Structure formats: structure tokens, C-alpha cells
Amino acid sequence: MNAAERLARDGFVVCAPDPRVADWAAEARRAAEEVLAEARGHKGALRHGETWFAGVDALPNAPDGSIGGVPLTGPWEAAVNWPGRWHRAQVSAVFPGYPGRDPQESDAAHRFRLRRDAAHLDGLLPEGPDRRRHLREPHAFILGLPLNPAAPGASPLVVREGSHRIMAAAMAARLSGMAPDKWGAQDVTEAYGAARRTVLETCPRREVPLLPGQSVLVHRHAIHGVAPWARGAWVEGGARMVAYFRPVLGDPADWLA
User: Fold this and answer.
1) Residue 131 phi/psi, 5° resolution?
2) Would residue 245 count as lying in a domain?
3) 3-class secondary-structure state, position 253
4) Residue 224 belongs to a domain with what CATH number?
5) Across the strands, what pairs with 16?
6) Which tens digits make up the pLDDT trace of 215-242?
7) How many domains does one find in the chain?
């Protein structure tokens, strides 16, 4: 079974270590460490008790995905076709003790992060005082590239295997009969919440620890999150860092294609 078939079956696929990916990760790590050092000097830049830096659009890669002249390429290309521009990657940095708790965070939100990995679907953004969900970022896929060595228990990515099929069906039913350019205006909170509950009750939870040189592709409809940091888990450099790309589709209709 090839990578594209595993992605379609499971909702994610881990690609074997590749020297091209390792070279990119080494260059990206240097840039990410500078970004993180600057962020730690700003109050409020780290969240959840200063155990997580979201780092959205923080990596200074070029529009072709390269960084420091090192091209963005690897075995994941066999499973996806992205001819467009690459956005600046997220630098997700998780520190020992994750998840801590922010003063304004509710008990329920903190418990969900502890017990359910803050499992979510990317692209459905919470808006307004009631945090109603809207499809604002119809992603093509999620590509994760680990930047530094860490133990498996160092807050790895968590994916709910097979969740992409449940979420896609729920969103297709909710948006049925509507023009794709109107999807973003629709409040999908109830449909999303019900489908996610089904996922958490029925889909296997898979921790996905990664090392530099590996890469992971996650289906755009897959429910995923971050595991709590296991006591004593080792990391090189103080925080486990992963660069994430989530390119946005030009035509929202392709999100449910």
C-alpha cells in the first residue's frame, strides 16, 4: 500500500526518514530557534501556562517552501500534489509540562486538552463571543516536519484514525445544496460538535511521535491534537518543535471533493 492509499485509509501517513527532509529540517530548526527565542521575550506569546508556542506563520520560508536555500521536498510528494505557493509554516513548540493552564482558561477547556488532546479539525475557526465555528480555511492537507529529536512521550501529535471519513460526511451533509462560496458564512458548530463526539467515541487514538528526517501527512478532515507531555520525556533543545504547512485551496469546493 502506497502513501496516498494509507492517507485515504487511515487519515494520516508517516513517511520514512529521508535525507532531503533532514536537510530542510536542520535549516528550519535554526530559524525556528531564533523565532522561539524572540517569542519568549514577549509576555503572552506562550500559552497554556507557558508550555506551548503556537507560532502560526512564524517560519521565514520562501513561497516555494525552501528555507536558507534548502528546497522543500520529500517522500510525501508521492501522496499530494501542491502546485501553489507555500505559506510561512507554523512553528509549533511544546515544552515539558504541557498542557499547563492559563488563568482565563475554563475547567472544561483544560480537561479537554488533558484528556482529549484538544482534538480538533483545522480550518473551522471559532468566531464571536460564543465561538461559533465557520469554515474559513479550506486546507488541502496538513504536512508536519519535525525539527529536533525528542522522546515519544514529548507531547507527540495525536490523530484519530479514520476520523476523516466521519467529519467529511458530517460537513457534506451540513453544507449540502449550498454554493461553495457561501460555505464560510454557515455556522457549522452543531454538526462539527456532534461528529467530533462520534469520532472521540469510535475512532482509535494514535500517537504519532516523529524524528527529524521523517514527515507526516494528515488528511484535511482528520481530527487531531497534541498529547500531554509524559513525565520525564526527553527533548533536545528545551522544546519539541514541528513545522506545519496547511496550504489553503483556491476553490473551496475542493475541500469536500
Assistant:
1) 55, 55
2) yes
3) helix
4) 2.60.120
5) none
6) 999 999 999 999 999 999 999 999 999 9
7) 1
* 54, 98, 154 from 111: Cα distances, Å: 19, 12, 19
**Helical segments of 60-182, H only:** 107-116, 163-175
Helices (H), the chain: 3-10, 19-39, 107-116, 163-175, 189-202
Question: Is 257 contained in some domain?
Answer: no
| Cell numbers 469536500: residue | 256
Please choose, from the candidates 216, 243, 247, the residue with its C-alpha nearest in 3D space to the C-alpha of residue 26.
243
Range of the domain at 192: 3-250
The reply to whether 246 falls in a domain is: yes
Paired sense of beta strands 215-218 and 205-208, if any: unpaired
For residue 68, give the C-alpha cell.
Answer: 536558507
Whether residue 99 has a cis bond before it, omega within 30° of 0: yes
Per-residue cell: 234? 526527553
pTM above 0.85, yes or no: yes
* pLDDT tens, residue by residue, 6-51: 999 999 999 999 999 999 999 999 999 999 999 988 888 899 999 9
